[in-house]
Input
Amino acid sequence: MTFDKVKEILIEELGLEDEINLTDNLKDDLDADSLDLAEVVINLEEVFGIEIPEEDYPKFKTVKDIVDFIDSKLK
Output
């Protein structure tokens, strides 16, 4: 499942606990800054075998935004 992989990457890259929800805001709830997001995206690209253009980064406000984006790329 996409969410489980995204959650795993966020926990690893951001040094978080296991409590991550789809509705979590990357900046406000997970304290991710732009550098963190870039690291997460690189990892996501490798794991899912997709390309995420830099201009799409601002679309990622919540964990669900990332999951939905990846799911759309995998279809």
